[in-house]
Amino acid sequence: MLPTNIILIRHGETAWNAERRLQGHIDIALNDEGLRQAAATAEALASERIDLIVSSDLQRAAATADAVARTRGMLAQRDPLLRERCFGGFEGLLYSEIEQRFPVEFAAWQAREIDAPMPSGARVAETFRQFYQRAVAAIVHWGDRHPGRTLALVAHGGVLECAYRAALGLSLETPRDFPVLNASINRFTVHAGKLSLVSWGEVGHLQPKVLDELS
Fold it and tell me: Which CDD domains does the record match to this protein (predicted)?
């Protein structure tokens, strides 16, 4: 079986990203900067082979995927299994507010206790282990279904973190000491059910174009 190339993209910026408000499964739109980032990502990938585009069904990921799809005359598919982690009662709050309202649960989260429960809100929260298993299985599922092809998967920061950890065999308990950037391009392969990392954190396409000083 041939390996599948995975271009894993984080959605563009939202207003809640900018103010450090936890989104989780709350469906927040891209802000103006996020729309610019999505368009820049689409332009950066325009010359590359992509056979299929799939995104989380949350609109910040879907809009980013649709920007990539439009430049190619394609339609993006949706997969709710590519959603961000559900944070339950933490969702919609600033990080500072979470620490104030839920000090015990916040401390466990920051200490990377991967099976620690979070308070329920509008939805029941996932532990980090549950989320990791869901996210990695979704990526591998798409890869195994399309051997030898190139897929663009548009998801969320947590999903990217899970893919990176799976590919490098990192313990879930270790701190996240690697960048997970909005509208970044990250490249993997899937072969025989295993993720491998090719490149990480491409963001050069997001820099504003520099005009020649004489133009």
Answer: HP_PGM_like (cd07067)
Strand order in the sheet with 52-55: 77-78, 52-55, 150-155, 4-10, 185-191, 194-202
CA–CA gap between residue 136 and residue 131 (Å, rounded): 9
Alpha-carbon span 177 to 179, nearest angstrom? 7
**188 in helix, strand or coil?**
strand
The owner of tokens 């065999």 is: 169
Q: How does pLDDT run across 171-198, given as a tens digit for each residue? A: 999 999 999 999 999 999 999 999 999 9
Q: What is the value of pTM for the model shown?
A: 0.95
Beta-bridged to residue 185, according to DSSP, are: 9, 202
Catalytic residue among 13, 25, 84, 91: 84
Which among 11, 25, 146, 156 is annotated as catalytic?
Answer: 11
Helix, strand, coil abundance in the chain, percent, nearest 5: 40, 20, 40
Annotation marks residue 156 as catalytic: no
Could you tell me if 60 and 34 are in contact, meaning their C-beta atoms sit under 8 angstroms apart? yes
Q: Which residues pair with 6 in a beta bridge?
A: 151, 188
Compute CA 208 distance to the chain's CA centroid, rounded to the nearest angstrom: 22
